[in-house]
Specification:
about 40% helix, Rossmann fold, globular, 11 helices, 7 strands, Asparagine synthetase domain-containing protein, Rossmann-like_a/b/a_fold, alpha/beta, 5-stranded mixed β-sheet, Ni-pincer_cofactor_biosynth
C-alpha cells in the first residue's frame, strides 16, 4: 500500500538483499513482471496542462492554463544515504566469493562503477586488507587466494571518451583494470542488428570475461589442486529499472552466465546517490549507451557506421560544451 510507504527514497524494493535472503542474479525475461504498470504508472515526460475558459471583465472568455504539480521525493538525508550504501555493501558481500576470482563486467558507466567499488571494498574489508587480492594459509598449510578484477570490453561500439572515463574511475576506486578486445563484430547476428544484437553482444562479452579469468587462474595456480577448483564469479551493473526494460535482451545472456547483479533492487537515482556518497567522479555523468544502439534496427552494425556514430556523438558533445 503506497499510503503506508515511508517518504524516504530508500524503499522496500531494494532491501531484498539486506534481510538475509539468498542474493539474486540477473533476471531473465520471464521475471520482468509489472512492465506495463511501470511504464504507465504516472511517469510522465511533462506535466499535464489543464485548460478551462474563464470570463474576463469584458465578458469575453479567456483560457487559463495551469500546470499540475509534479510529485517529487524529498532529497535523501545523510543517514538515509549511509543506510543505502551499507545495505548495498551487505548485499554485495553475500555474492562476493573470498577464495574465487571476482570479475566485474565494467564499462565506466555509473552503474558498473558502483558495482566495482562495492565489490572492491567488500573483498578488501572482508580480509582486512586494502589490496585487491589475498593469499592466506588454510588449516592444511596450503595456500588459497581470491581476487578482484574489472574487465573493460573494447570494440568499435565503445566511445573513446567512455574508455578514458573508465580508466579514470577504476584508478579512483583502486580496482585493477584489464582491457580486452571483444569479437561481437565478427558475428553475423550482431551485424544484422535485427533486434538480437544486445543479446549477442553480451554473450560475447561474458564469454570473453570467463575465458580471461580462467586463463589468469591457470597461470597463477602453479598446479595446486586446491586452486584449480577456484571459480569465476561475475558481476554486472544491472539496476532495478533495467530489469523492467523489455529491450535489454542482454539480461538473458547475464542469466545464462549466472552473472550477479548487486544493484537489481535499486533505482537509477539511488545508484547515483550511492556513487556520489562513495566519491565516484562519474556519479552524475550522462548515460553513455553503446554506439550500436544509436543505429536504427536493421541498419547493419558495421565498424564504419559505428565510427561515424562515435564522430557524431563527439561533435554533439563539443557543440553542447559537454567535453
Amino acid at each position: 500500500d503506497e499510503s503506508e510507504s515511508p517518504t524516504s527514497p530508500i524503499d522496500d524494493e531494494w532491501e531484498c538483499g539486506a534481510r538475509g535472503e539468498e542474493p539474486s542474479r540477473s533476471r531473465g525475461a520471464e521475471e520482468r513482471g509489472g512492465m506495463e504498470e511501470w511504464r504507465n504508472g504516472g511517469m510522465e515526460a511533462h506535466p499535464r496542462r489543464k485548460s478551462e475558459p474563464e470570463p474576463n471583465r469584458t465578458g469575453q472568455s479567456v483560457v487559463k492554463v495551469t500546470h499540475s504539480a509534479r510529485q517529487t521525493n524529498p532529497p535523501p538525508t545523510s543517514s538515509e544515504t549511509t543506510q543505502l550504501v551499507d545495505n548495498l555493501l551487505l548485499r554485495t558481500s553475500q555474492m562476493v566469493k573470498k577464495s574465487d576470482a571476482n570479475i566485474v563486467a565494467y564499462s565506466g558507466g555509473v552503474d558498473s562503477s558502483l558495482v566495482a567499488a562495492l565489490v572492491q571494498r567488500t573483498f578488501s574489508d572482508s580480509e582486512g586488507l586494502e589490496s585487491s587480492s589475498v593469499v592466506r594459509d588454510d588449516d592444511n598449510g596450503s595456500s588459497t587466494s581470491g581476487s578482484v578484477l574489472a574487465i573493460l570490453g573494447i570494440s568499435p561500439a565503445v566511445p573513446k571518451s567512455q574508455i578514458l572515463m573508465a580508466r579514470k574511475v577504476a584508478d579512483k576506486i583502486g580496482i585493477p583494470l584489464r582491457e580486452v578486445q571483444t569479437r561481437e563484430g565478427s558475428d553475423e547476428r550482431y551485424l544484422l542488428n535485427d533486434g538480437q544484437a544486445c543479446y549477442v553482444c553480451k554473450t560475447h562479452l561474458y564469454s570473453t570475461l570467463q575465458l580471461v579469468a580462467e586463463s589468469a587462474l591457470e597461470i597463477g595456480v602453479a598446479g595446486a589442486e586446491e586452486d584449480l577448483q577456484r571459480k569465476v564469479v561475475m558481476f554486472n551493473g544491472t539496476n532495478l529499472e533495467d530489469t523492467k526494460d523489455p529491450t535489454r535482451l542482454g539480461l538473458l545472456a547475464a542469466s545464462e552466465f549466472e552473472v550477479h547483479s548487486p544493484l537489481d533492487c535499486v533505482t537509477k537515482d539511488q545508484v547515483r546517490q550511492a556513487a556520489r556518497h562513495l566519491g565516484l567522479p562519474n556519479w552524475n555523468s550522462a548515460a553513455s549507451p553503446c554506439l550500436r544502439s544509436r543505429l536504427a534496427m536493421n541498419v547493419l552494425a558495421t565498424e564504419g557506421l559505428l565510427k561515424s556514430c562515435g564522430a557524431c556523438r563527439s561533435l554533439c558533445q563539443a557543440s553542447l560544451g559537454l567535453g
